[in-house]
Structure formats: structure tokens, C-alpha cells
Amino acid sequence: MRAVFHPLSLYVGLRYVRARTHKFFVSFITWVSLIGVCVGVAALIVILSVMNGFEGELRTRLLSFSSDARIVASQPSAPAPSASEWADAMRAARSVPGVVGVAPYLEAEVLAVRSPEMQPVLLRGVDPQLESSVTAVAKFIKSGRLADLTPGSGAAMVGDVVAEQLGLMPGDRITLLIPTILPDGTPAPKLRQLRVAGTFEVGLEENQATLILANLADVRALGVAPSGQGLHVRFADPLAAPRFAALIRPRLPAGLEIVDWTQDNASYFRAIRIEKTMMSLILLLIVAVAAFNLIAMLVMVVNDKRTDIAILRTFGTSPRRVMGVFLTQGLVIGWAGVALGIALGVALALNVETIVPALEHTFGFQIMDPTVYYDTSIPSQVEAWNVVLIAIAALALTALATIYPAFRAARTPPADALRYE
Fold this sequence. Notes:
Helix content is 53%, strand content 18%.
């Protein structure tokens, strides 16, 4: 007969896990602990994946009418950079590996008028051919085409909120009240008209309710005093914008600087990071509660196995090995819950966009009210490093939960355990 050798602590610990206990309450607590860890880990993965999805959606919409970075004058109050300096800046940006597009733009604050309504708007002049290479504006156009903004056409693309408030339809004329100042300092507002070539809808109030796009040459011809001008820059990887911007910055002419999207929208993403951190801590409490249940279960098992502990100690088993028995039992239960939670969480997170509509249809409710939210879908983006961090945190919590019961088992005196049996 062949002898099979097992590490004693591992062998006995696994036997305790597999054994059918006659203590119903201990068994119940065991299952509650395992399910609690599973639910906590799964909830963390799903919630963080959904928040990652919303963050990615917000980034896409923020960059749809902007760009990964902007090259602007470092001191707006100083004399405007010359045309040659802008040309040098464009060549410098294009010379950096990873830059996939550079386009000029010009912005001016004007008043849109269509009797009896008027509204302050931001008029942005763009080059349609180059603009498509640096922003995703064409993706969000509801009617018309970006190519309709040809030089000299006087055509404009209007945000759908502006169009609704002013009662504009494609083909209508919109009057712009342009503030200008004569050389002697006297204000001299001008009235100019543009033709509405189409509308766009991006899902961000600051764009839909304030922005009008026109051809760059047409905006310059209006004689507006620019409130902002510069170059839009697009990178191969928007998430690496700070790194690419750092490569462009030393190549720019004096008086120009580059600002990437993470600086423009720092408050948005700082708020999202804080929300994700707080949500993670709150949901991690579910795992912590399950870990406390694990402690209670192991303490009861230790009390139930006092005779077994005494026998093992009598046969010469060291306290360290006795401690290993209950560490094994606790880790197997806790880590099984973590593994199940990871599998369940990843499966749910990868199928959120299918599961949510099915639940809404089955129970007759809608999570994202269409009267409040522009996009009622719930995006999900599973990131491997999130799953790894959640797994490490859950494994650490469940491992810590086994230490006290195992230490208590190791300190059980054999004589005291046998005395009362």
C-alpha cells in the first residue's frame, strides 16, 4: 500500500472544510460569510466598471467639440502672436511622434438674435477639413454636414438647444450682434447674419446651449475681437495627453503654451475619482462585514473542535501547525468567496448593457430617466487593474479575519479541552 503524505495543517484544514458539520448555525454562518464576500467583490467590480464607463463616456463627449490639447497664447493680455508664430507652432506640434492632427480655431463671444429672442453664444471658427482630424464633431451632427461650412458661404452649425430656444431650422438666418471697439475706444457693435446649415447634439449643456460653429475664414471676415484663438491638437492616445504635451511644450515659440484636456477638465475628473474612491470604500465594507462573519464562524469551529485540537496536541502537533489548520479552513472559505465574486462581477460588468435593458423591460422601470439624462444607456468598462486591486483587498481582509481564531486555537491547552469532554 502506497503512503500518501500531506502537510498536516493543509490536510486537516481541508477535511474540516469538506466535513458535514452537525452544527446548523456554524454551517449557516459559513455560507453567509462565503456569499457575503462573493457579493461584496462582485458589487465592487460592477460599480467601478460602470463608473469607468461613465468616465469614458464623459471624456468622449468633452473631447467631441474640443481636442486632446490646445496651443494658446501664454499671456492673453499681451499682443497676439503673429501668423508666422502660429505656423511655427503648428509645424512644431506636427513634428512630435504621436500627434495625429493639428487645426487652427478662433472663438468670440457674441449675441445671437432672432426676434424676439436673444442669447449669448460662443462663435467658433474652424477649418472643416482639419477639424475632423482633431475632434469628433462630425459624430454628433444631427442635420447637415461639417463640410457645408465652406469659406464665404456664411453657413453655421448650431447647438440644438440654441436652435430650440431661438426657433431655428436648417436654412434659417441667425443675426449676430458682435461687440467691436473703434480705434478711438468707442464701442461700435456690428450686426452680421449667418445661415443655419445644421444642428448638433452632444449631450453637454455647455456645448449644445452656447456653441455655434462656422468656417474660420468667415469668422475672421466678421471682424470679431477674438476671446480665444489657438490650435487644436489630437494625439494617438488621449490618455497620454500630458506626456505628449510635455514633448511639444519646449518646441513652441515664446509666448505660446500648450494645455491638455486633463488640465481643462481637471474638476470633472477629480470629482469622479473622489466618487470612485468613496464608493469603493463603502462597498468594501460589505467584504469587511463578511470577514467578521468569517471570524465568528471560525471561533465557533474552534470551540467545536477543542477535543480534536487536544488530541492533535497530545500526539505532538505544534501550536504553529494547529494554527495552520484553521488558517487553511478560513482562507479556503474566504478565498473561494473572492474567486466566485470576481467571476460573477466580471461576468455582470461585461454584460451590463444587456442585463440592464432586460431588467427594465421585465420590471417596467427605467434607471436613467430620459427626461433628465441625454443618454439613458449604462456603459461599462472593465479595467484589469481595478479587478486586481479589488481581489488583493478582499484576499487581505479575509486573510486577516482568520488570524485571531487560528491564534486562539493554537493557544488552547490540551488538558483543559479534555477535562470537560
